[in-house]
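Lay summary. Proteins are chains of building blocks that fold into shapes, and those shapes determine what they do. In this project we predict the shape from the chain. Here is one chain we studied, written as its sequence of building blocks.
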Amino acid sequence: MKKLLYLTPLLLLAPMIVSAADVNTNFNNESCVLTVSGSQTGHDATVSLFDDHNADIGFKTGEINNGSYSVEFVLGYENETIINITVSNEAGENEKKLSNVVIPACNAPVIDQGPQDPGQHEVVKDKDYAVTDDNGNSVSFKEENGHTFKLNIMDFYGLNDVALNDLGIPKDLYDAMFNGINNAVKGEGTLLAFLQIEVEDENGFLIHEGPFNIKIKMTDEMKKYNSFKFIYVDTNDNFKTQTPIEFKVNGEYLEGTLDHLSEYAVVGNVVEEAADVAPTTTNNPKTGDSVLLYVGILILSVVGLISTGLFLKKNNLNSK
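And here is the predicted shape, written in a compact code that computers can read:
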């Protein structure tokens, strides 16, 4: 449940968001270390980092001493990057947010720090991975060698009251959320799913930078359509969308490529396929057929002449 609190946009809206004035950041350009500090209640402070798509980068827990905490992340990015930060106590309460934190480009040193969050060292993506869930969905990608991964895909569209209660999502919040999502994508087609796609490594950290080759098993409702798009919808920024990505039907699956793993609306359309028009052909005899035709006519002519000659000769003999 704690994981959903950080990863599900539906739940990010549920807790009361307080001022982030006491969340401080400092980035050291030489060591590429981001320090997050501030005041917090409880025994431990959980600091979570998200990219500008609100996909999880990683989190760390720091002990609170005299009401204060300090946590460090090593972040080495080739280009300037925007991240968002949330801080809460061990119960997931008293959440504070700091948005649009600029992380400058920095060449992080490769150091041994034990288990690390993604982004803590330069990653060499030199191995092909393919992960599949229990429903037959799969994601394939390249990542550094030596890891194991698990695929988690959840469709938040059409949840009933029991499921909402299990997830701790208020129904009025859920209805308002999907009203916004529907309005955001209605010009692109019929909303069929709202998928949260996650690939998690053995340490519980998520990877989200691809490309990823995605294979999603079609539902019965999806099979009523023949044209599909995946659309990223930013539920934390007035339901802004990005350029739709076309997915193709391959048997009972939708297949396509995503550069980023996050939450996507799946929309469908029924597109009339152009009818196959048989090519117009003229049954002109081939050259070989023409020769055979002429030979046949010639043979018939010769036979006719011989028959006529024999008939006339016979008549002449009988008249004598």
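What the prediction tells us: The radius of gyration is 35 Å.
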